[in-house]
Amino acid sequence: MNFVSRKERRVVIRQVPIVLLLVMVLFSAPMLAFSLLHIFRGTDAEGKYFTLLFGIFMIWVFLEFVATRERVNIDLEKRKMVRTVSGLFRKQIQKIDLKEMKEVGVELPLVRGRRRQFLYMYGTNGKHLLNSPAKVYIDHRKMGRLLSEVTMLPYRGEQEI
To answer: What is 2-17+68-160's CATH number, 2.30.29, 1.10.357, 3.30.70, 2.40.128?
Structure first.
């Protein structure tokens, strides 16, 4: 889900996978509830510490690798864009100078029998990949149109390769 906030000459676009966060809660909450209930009551239940650690491990795996959050900061005055992808601990930062960019587009190559969405910004020094194509739960076409609208770059559209 995209959340857009505009503050004077800055635009911030956040992509938060709410459905995946709810799935994480659905898978980890029963394990955590079981183990914490038996730990606090002091009952002698088999595997209460293992279940606690396994529930915490499931939360970490989901937050770190599955439900990563993306944030795109666009400074319209300086014509700079910073894209940040963050998990629980790791963080990737991509900086793009919008002065050199010409257009935004989505390429749809056939990868292992499936169409993947590759969101690119095309510029004078080549094309810059702006997404993680393996994340099929995010509509990258919608993000491309939104970036085109905010940065005032033309939207090339979808091209099948």
So the answer is: 2.30.29
Domain positions in the chain are 2-17+68-160, 20-66
Buried-exposed string 51-83: b where 16+ CB fall within 10 A, e elsewhere: bbeebeebbebbbeeebbebbbebebeeeebeb
Other C-beta atoms within 10 Å of 84: how many? 15
Q: What is the pTM of this model?
A: 0.75
Q: What is the arithmetic mean of pLDDT over 128-149? A: 80
Of 119, 128, 150, 152, the C-alpha closest to 13 is 150
In whole angstroms, what is the distance from residue 68 CA to residue 54 CA? 20
pLDDT tens, residue by residue, 50-90:
999 999 999 988 888 777 888 899 998 999 999 998 887 87
Within 10 angstroms of residue 125's Cβ, the number of other Cβ atoms is 9
